[in-house]
């Protein structure tokens, strides 16, 4: 019995180490590896030409509010078309925060949520010009018209935090370039 057990164990070891039943083959080249491709999302950012808002289409990885604002600041440093500039040059985008609007007359009604406010937090010295506020506000409103009702811009540092209040693109209609229709 002991001998049979020993023989069985040795046979199992030989089979395990010996062969798995698959014959080895040479390495074969089957061509290029698969590649995941994507087509970028295009967003409209508002840059300035002679102090007037002009739209420019820019590709982005996603159309999240953060990516849209990042794209606006990046496009201001490397404009996609000759002659376009930005009033955001000395500022950097730090963060974005979304908060809900509520209709205070319907406090307990969940349907009282009307829309969202996007707070854009920037860093940089000095004051943000009206043109800079218009660039941020109209870029967000152009790409997020349905959900974002107003845009608030706040500087975090240097110095004490400062807010430039809530804005809609409608208030900057006088800054639109000739033939440009701004979002609400």
Task: Jot down its keywords.
184 residues; alpha+beta; four-stranded mixed β-sheet; two-stranded antiparallel ribbon; 3 helices; 29% strand; elongated
Would you kindly provide a brief summary of this structure?
The chain is of the alpha+beta class and 184 residues long. It is built from 3 helices and 6 strands.
Q: What spatial order of strands do you see in the largest sheet?
A: 3-4-5-6
What's the main sheet like? 4 strands, mixed
End-to-end Cα distance, whole Å, is 91 Å
Shape: elongated
Would you count the extended β strands for me? Answer: 6
H/E element order: HEEHEEHEE
Query: What is the arithmetic mean of pLDDT?
Result: 85
Q: Can you count the helices? A: 3
Radius of gyration: 30 Å
Protein name: Lipoprotein
Keywords: Signal
Question: What would you note in describing this structure?
Answer:
This protein has 184 residues and is α+β, with helices and mostly antiparallel strands. Helix content is 24%, strand content 29%. The protein contains 3 helices and 6 strands. A hairpin with a 2-residue loop joins strand 1 and strand 2. Helix 2 (65-77) crosses helix 3. The longest helix has 17 residues, at 2-18. The termini are far apart.
Describe the secondary structure blueprint for this structure.
Layout lengths: L1 H17 L22 E9 L2 E9 L4 H13 L14 E11 L10 E11 L6 H14 L4 E8 L6 E6 L17
Parallel strand pairs: 4-5
Antiparallel strand pairs: 1-2, 3-4, 5-6
Helix pairs in contact: 2-3
């Amino acid at each position: 019995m002991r001998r049979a057990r020993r023989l069985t164990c040795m046979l199992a070891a030989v089979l395990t180490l010996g062969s798995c039943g698959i014959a080895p083959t040479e390495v074969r080249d089957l061509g290029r590896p698969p590649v995941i491709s994507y087509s970028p999302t295009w967003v409209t950012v508002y840059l300035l030409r002679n102090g007037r808002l002009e739209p420019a289409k820019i590709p982005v990885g996603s159309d999240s509010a953060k990516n849209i604002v990042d794209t606006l600041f990046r496009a201001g440093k490397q404009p996609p078309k000759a002659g376009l500039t930005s009033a955001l040059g000395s500022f950097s985008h730090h963060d974005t925060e979304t908060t809900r609007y509520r209709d205070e007359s319907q406090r307990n009604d969940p349907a009282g949520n009307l829309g969202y406010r996007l707070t854009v937090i920037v860093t940089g010295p000095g004051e943000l010009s009206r043109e800079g506020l218009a660039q941020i506000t109209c870029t967000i409103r152009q790409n997020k018209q349905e959900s974002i009702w107003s845009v608030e811009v706040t500087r975090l540092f240097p110095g004490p935090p400062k807010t430039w209040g809530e804005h809609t693109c409608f208030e900057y209609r006088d800054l639109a370039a000739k033939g440009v229709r701004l979002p609400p």
